[in-house]
Amino acid sequence: MQSFIYKSAPTRVIFGSGTVSQLAAEMELLSVRRALFLSTPEQAGDAEAIAATVGDRDIGIYSNATMHTPVEVTDDAMTTVTACNADVVVAIGGGSTIGLSKAIALRTDLPQIVLPTSYAGSEMTAIIGQTEGGRKTTQTTPRVQPEVVIYDVDLTMSLPPAMAGTSGINAIAHAVEALYAQDRNPVISLMAEEAVRALAEALPRIVADPGAVDPRGGALYGAWLCGMCLGSTGAALHHKICHVLGGSFGMPHAETHTVMLPHVTAYNAPAAPEAMASLSRALGSPDPARALFDLAGAVGARRSLRELGLTLDAAVEAGRLTFENAYWNPRPLDAEALESMMRRAWAGEPPK
Ligand code: NAD
């Protein structure tokens, strides 16, 4: 029998199609009127269109959210927060926009309403990563946990299929690590298995038929569950290595997760038999690591760090850096085995 602690997420979640229309009512429930809408430059049009739906409430728009939440960008956004005297932040976008929303909440304690448009899962966590002077640091604090999340599948239809594929595998990584986390619990494990099943089923269908709503809905549902997994359990080697590759080598977030996940799953498999049994059920395969590698292939993702532009030396060095402030991992870190894993991931060989 496994002892555990379970705490449910305090976030109010609205899920469906056309749910963006409930934004004004959600603002009403929070008793707020002056919203600051956030997006990246690429999604500025979406932010403007959604801002136009909240009636006569005062609004401000800041559309310069940037990957890895640089503090200079937060400083810049704070001038708009002050100028519009915002009493709520509304984030429309992926992890980068939600990161900016959290950074503003950390400084101001303003409530957040988040409309996620990718599958990264940040909306369901109390984690914030910020970059200052080229260094990314992460902290966990309830101050940044969004109050309301509105999942609207319609907002995800514009996610290009290739990005949906890697973003979805990024989400699966949260579920995989939740299944073998030191602080895992039966409720989150149920969610994790269901999340992997939903995403593995939906992602190839999105690539085959990008305009179909049903698989997009399945993927968003899986991504929500994955976000819950990330927000509820401690991450292990996979997130550590991706953090190193992103933070120290500037590697792209979702694509790096996609390359590394099959390899870390194979590395941890001998030490996490229950997690592997769960993944086998979810993926319909006796070899979950191989199934994840095949899933990455099925969505047309790049499967090597080399193709993402990393040198072999840097890949090996990244493996070594996982020993610095190492995260708990079910299988102890072994320098030789890790180097061999990084070499395979660099070359794009199947996991072993
Ligand atoms: P992202 O937010 O940077 O999005 C990538 C690009 O895709 C952006 O240009 C964005 O505007 C665009 N995009 C997003 N959704 C779209 C859509 N539906 N249609 C068209 N374009 C769309 O990337 P991401 O992978 O979502 O997030 C990555 C960032 O999130 C990283 O910085 C990562 O560290 C952070 N993150 C944080 C947490 C946390 O809990 N704090 C969790 C996961 C990820």
Provide structural commentary.
With 352 residues, this protein is an alpha/beta fold. It folds into two domains: 12-156, 3-Layer(aba) Sandwich (Rossmann fold); 161-347, Dehydroquinate synthase-like, alpha domain (Up-down Bundle), CATH 1.20.1090.10. It is built from 14 helices and eight strands. The chain has a six-stranded parallel β-sheet with strand order 1-8-5-4-2-3, sandwiched between helices. The chain has a two-stranded antiparallel ribbon with strand order 6-7. Helix 7 packs antiparallel against helix 8, helix 10 runs antiparallel to helix 12 and helix 10 (253-268) packs across helix 14 (335-347). The two termini are 31 Å apart. The model has no long low-confidence stretch (mean pLDDT 96). The structure holds nicotinamide-adenine-dinucleotide. Nicotinamide-adenine-dinucleotide binds at residues 40, 42-43, 67-68, 93-97, 99, 117-118, 120-122, 125, 127-129, 155-156, 158-159, 167, 230, 253-254. Nicotinamide-adenine-dinucleotide is lined by residues 40, 42-43, 67-68, 93-97, 99, 117-118, 120-122, 125, 127-129, 155-156, 158-159, 167, 230, 253-254.
Name of the CATH architecture of the largest domain: Up-down Bundle
Gross geometry:
globular
The CATH superfamily name of the largest domain is: Dehydroquinate synthase-like - alpha domain
Ions and ligands: nicotinamide-adenine-dinucleotide
Query: What value does the average pLDDT take?
Result: 96
Return residue spans where pLDDT drops below 50 for at least 5 consecutive residues: none
Major sheet strand order:
1-8-5-4-2-3
CATH topology of the largest domain: Dehydroquinate synthase-like, alpha domain
Number of strands: 8
Which CATH first-tier class of the largest domain would you pick? Mainly Alpha
* Helix residue percentage: 40-55%
- Rg estimate, integer Å: 20 Å
Number of helices: 14
Q: What distance separates the N and C termini?
A: 31 Å
Overall structural class, as computed from helix and strand content, comes to alpha/beta
- Major beta-sheet overview: 6 strands, parallel
Q: Which sequence of SSEs, written as H and E, runs from N to C?
A: EHEHEHEHEEEEHHHHHHHHHH
**Range of strand content:** 5-15%
Indicate how many domains the architecture comprises.
2
